[in-house]
Amino acid sequence: MTRALRFSKAELKRAVELVRDEDVAVKLTRDGGILLIPAKHIAGRVDPTEDDILDAELKAFEEEHGYR
Asked: Pick from 42, 36, 1: which is nearest to 15 by CA?
């Protein structure tokens, strides 16, 4: 049997307002926590070029310092 969530209607309403007004994702956890995720970290909105830049910098560093 599942337990009831530990959130009041007011807390759920505030979470919805945050999603709308602040452009964040809200995750409600089973233990009663509320996790706010900034929009730039929401899956599908993360800029994949940042990883490409870091990979290129790491490769250049490794080549310069004799790694690999």
From this structure: 36
